[in-house]
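PROTEIN DESIGN WORKSHEET
SECTION A - STRUCTURE
LENGTH: 457
TOKENS:
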């Protein structure tokens, strides 16, 4: 079993959060069902799993459920054994977006407290946006992603103790020794090829056969394309077309999809395809990065939806589409191969998995910077530049960005393959694998206590 960070969260929630139902959202094939099944069978005597997508495509046992009593009766018949109560029975409603009326019912199931419920879905963001009565206050939504780079290191034999030591070096802004650097950089290259989809990683761990890994990538990429066709007729062809354009768009200078190419119509802009872009992002199969032209903390106040980039949700899918079985494109320093887009996708994956909203800097006079993130510790914006080649100190747009007096930003990070950690003119140069330690402020499990208010007579 692959070790995942979210496992501890699931166990804590099911043990401690008795007043809410957890909804786990994320793309298909990232391990949601497997982990919930693992935790559910570990913690509960009775674990009932119902795949509502399969039910909708088959017997539709739960299609006509309109009351909680209807659901309880069908659950008893489905399980074919006596159920217990909330303390020993967990009902797992998988792919719950298939039946939006059950999303609305979660509020009442939670209030009655007959059993413990947990739900997951691959398009919950879309379903919740379309559900007229969202059960706010009764549910907690947890986003899940493919394995991040640290989890990949665990899977490939790097211990948490060793990673803790590497983390300390990152916090001290120190370089690692040559041997450790070489090892981590090689692991990083393998992550570029394999990615974070559990099935692809498991195939690699079995026999290191990249052909079998690429077969998994091909199947999942096709699955994501097919999923887009489940949308209504007005949108589905445009959604699939946009998804198909992502790899080629990332290879052009601006890395943005050319709106004319979607329907071969001139004069189109983001507003004509906003629903389609949001669908791909909400379903978890694409990462959407919004432009910022006048950055100020917090970035959400300066966000522009007019100019967006889309990345695939997993770097393994991208290297499969770009390079196929030619692993040398990644493993060897081939001058004609520019891995810049691939490196950017990895960082986008890390940022989103670690709680950041995705933004980049776009200014006609000053140029582009790959990513901007909110630095909550300093209450300022932190620009990030990602470099895959040897010219990592060349970054004219970043230099102009830091020299802009109206921004008031004097600190930036450049990630590259270079082992050395350096600081020059406000820029800290870090090895690319250190991106796994970027986290958005306080962890959800931490407790922050406000100072006591002064007493008023």
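SECTION B - SEQUENCE
RESIDUE ASSIGNMENT:
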């Amino acid at each position: 079993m692959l070790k995942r960070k979210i496992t501890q969260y699931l166990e804590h929630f099911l043990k401690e959060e008795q007043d809410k139902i957890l909804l786990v959202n994320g793309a298909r094939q990232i391990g949601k069902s497997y982990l919930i099944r693992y935790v559910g069978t570990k913690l509960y005597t009775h674990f009932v799993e119902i795949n509502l997508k399969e039910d909708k495509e088959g017997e539709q046992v739960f299609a006509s459920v309109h009351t909680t009593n209807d659901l309880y009766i069908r659950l008893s018949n489905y399980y074919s054994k006596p159920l217990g109560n909330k303390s020993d029975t967990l009902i797992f409603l998988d792919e719950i977006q298939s039946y939006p009326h059950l999303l609305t019912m979660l509020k009442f199931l939670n209030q009655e407290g007959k059993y413990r419920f947990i739900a997951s879905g691959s398009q919950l963001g879309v379903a919740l946006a379309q559900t007229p009565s969202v059960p706010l206050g009764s549910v907690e939504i947890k986003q899940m992603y493919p394995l991040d780079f640290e989890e990949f290191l665990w899977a490939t034999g790097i211990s948490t103790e060793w990673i803790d030591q590497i983390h300390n070096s990152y916090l001290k802004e120190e370089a690692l020794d040559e041997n450790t650097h070489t090892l981590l950089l090689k692991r990083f290259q393998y992550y570029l090829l394999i990615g974070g989809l559990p099935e692809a990683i498991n195939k690699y761990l079995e026999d290191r056969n990249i052909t079998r890994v690429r077969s998994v990538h091909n199947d999942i990429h096709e699955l994501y394309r097919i999923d887009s066709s489940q949308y209504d007729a007005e949108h589905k062809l445009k959604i699939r077309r946009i998804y198909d354009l992502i790899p080629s768009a990332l290879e052009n200078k601006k890395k943005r999809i050319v709106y004319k190419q979607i329907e071969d119509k001139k004069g189109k802009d983001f507003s004509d395809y906003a629903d389609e872009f949001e669908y791909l992002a909400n379903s978890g199969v694409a990462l959407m990065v919004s432009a910022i032209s006048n950055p100020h903390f917090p970035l959400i106040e300066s966000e522009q939806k007019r100019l967006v980039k889309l990345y695939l949700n997993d770097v393994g899918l991208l290297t499969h589409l770009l390079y196929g079985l030619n692993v040398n494109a990644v493993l060897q320093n081939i001058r004609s191969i520019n891995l810049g887009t691939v490196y950017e996708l990895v960082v986008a994956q890390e940022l989103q998995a670690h709680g950041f909203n995705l933004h980049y800097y776009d200014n006609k006079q000053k140029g582009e910077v790959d990513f901007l993130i909110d630095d909550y510790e300093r209450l300022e914006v932190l620009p990030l530049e990602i470099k895959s080649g040897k010219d990592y100190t060349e970054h004219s747009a970043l230099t102009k960005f830091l020299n802009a007096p109206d921004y008031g930003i004097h600190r930036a990070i450049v990630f590259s393959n270079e082992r050395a950690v350096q600081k020059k003119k406000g820029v800290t140069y870090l090895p690319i694998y250190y991106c796994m330690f970027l986290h958005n402020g306080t962890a959800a499990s931490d407790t922050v206590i406000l100072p006591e208010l002064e007493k008023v007579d």
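SECTION C - NOTES
DSSP finds 18 helices and 13 strands in the chain.
Residues 210-228 form the longest helix (19 residues).
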